[in-house]
Amino acid sequence: RRVLFRSHISDKFYNAYSNMASCYDNINNRDSSLYYVNLALQYAHANEVLTTYANALNIRAAIYTKSREFGLAENDMKEAITVRERIGDVLYEISDMAQLSSFYASIHETIKGEAIAKKGLLIAEKANNLSKLIFLYEALGENYKAAGLSGNYAKVLETIAGLKDSLYKKNSEDAIAEL
Fold first, then answer.
1. Within its chain, how far is the Cα of 53 from the centroid?
2. What are phi and psi of 13, to 5 degrees?
3. How many CB atoms lie within 10 A of CB 89?
4. Could you tell me the pTM of the whole model?
């Protein structure tokens, strides 16, 4: 670790650091995963590589979630969304909103989860992105299910089915047009 950290080229490895953090997290080595994700955050921030910075925040949020440090995880996910918004990365902003909404459902903070999913849905509708709409509706559904709102959950499942049909139709039309 020390060799990479002291190297004059270490600031070029922020993506590798993020990947190493994920790998260590996958084998439940929390200390190493936090070490490498924090390096990724440090260098990505210093070099203003904001997409990598937001990605690393989400990786660290996953590490924190796994260790049940929900407040820290929530803060990182919110900051990642703010970064995506700042750089105009709409598709990842929407994905991060869906992820935060699912996170809220998992910790039974369903009011927050519903709010962020609905905010993301407005953005996804403006972007006319069917796959992101599906992702957000799935997150919204998780919150309704966790809150015991079965009627709302059923409506969301119907909406998802309709969106998937539309996406399938669009993809089929695109594939036929390529022939």
1. 13
2. -105, 20
3. 17
4. 0.84
